[in-house]
Design a protein that fits this description.
By secondary structure, this protein is mostly helical. The chain is built from 12 helices and no strands. The protein is globular. The chain binds a DNA duplex through helix 2, helix 3, helix 6, helix 8 and helix 9.
Length: about 270
Amino acid sequence: MVARAGSSRASTRRSRTSPPPVVFDRPTLDKARWCRRRLLAWYEQHGRQFPWRSQDAGVFQQVVAEVLLQRTQASTVGRFFGAFFEQFRSWDDIDSAPDEFLESILRPIGLWRRRAIALKALAAEMVARRGDFPDSRGELEILPAIGQYVASAVLLFAQGRPEPLLDSNMARVLDRVFEPRRLVDIRYDPRLQGLARLLVRSREPARINRAILDLAARHCGRSPTCEECPLRTRCNFALHNRSGPSSRVPQINEAALGRRRPQGVKD
DNA sequence: CTCCTGGATA
DNA sequence: TATCCGGGAG
């Protein structure tokens, strides 16, 4: 039961995220379909369980979890999940909590100061909104703590729309299976976003999203285990990779993609 | 050491 | 468009 609040007229005029003007050729469309099937089959057996993926998790927990997951490993948030939501069970709980208390709870997983500010601002907004999110991406991305990624998560989980959870992991999978991205920053690469949106265009977009994220975490990291990957037979990286018996992977010019920060050490 | 389901800021 | 936030796991 999707309540479409007739926003057809003032449709997302020009949000920070461009609409999908990207057109793909037939081979790419076929490959995407093939990937979807393989991913779902793989996810059926190897998908990971997390609290925020549970049926028990409401939109509140799902969205807050997305904020907790930013630049943070899922396993870390997995261990942290119970302790956090035992203290904060609603937007109102966060809104009414003292800043320093929220910070102290967030401290173990890092980014605690920024996250406290962001969650506070978002909670206040959500209390004022009586708990319901706007239904357009443009309106969502205005809200505090909500950027392109979390906006997609809200549209995906709260409205069941086929939006991609395009993070650095999904980007890496798409780079390898399809074409390398143009831009270093995935947030401003229309081609990459269009590709991600194409992949999750299915009956169960949430499952596809999770399948890709889990695949990236399990087999498609910096040192990928292509032998066990369900996409290996049509993945550029895996195909180039199988040329030799050595398990050591030399280099695919991937060094230019990941940002190399000098990270000056000061003594 | 790098990386982790990014977003706000200048 | 580049930088910062942050503790923890690998």
